[in-house]
Amino acid sequence: MLDPKTRELVAIGASVVAKCQPCLDYHLEEARKMGVSPADIRSAVSIARMVRKAGDQNMDVFVNERIGEAIQEPVASDACCSSEKCCG
Q: Domains in the chain, ordered, with CATH?
């Protein structure tokens, strides 16, 4: 079971990936009330941005394949979610 601070950090990351601004505002406020450090919040946001970027890029490749457009390169191998175990 996750402790409340960790749950808020996960929710912050999920809000960033989902591009949900009201969710992000809510979970940032809750995390700050609980005393989550700015460094931990920045870390959660950074990871979420990498996940979101990988998903967006891989979706672009997928769409291009389906519509017969020139195929773009998928996410670089050093990206957070480039492995098949995650989003790639």
A: 4-67 (1.20.1290.10)
**pLDDT per position as a tens digit, 35-64:** 999 999 999 999 999 999 998 888 888 888
The counts of H helices and E strands in the chain are 3, 0
DSSP string, 16-43: HHHT-HHHHHHHHHHHHHTT--HHHHHH
Residue with tokens 């291009």: 64
- pTM for this structure? 0.73
Helix (H, G, I), strand (E, B) or coil at 56: helix
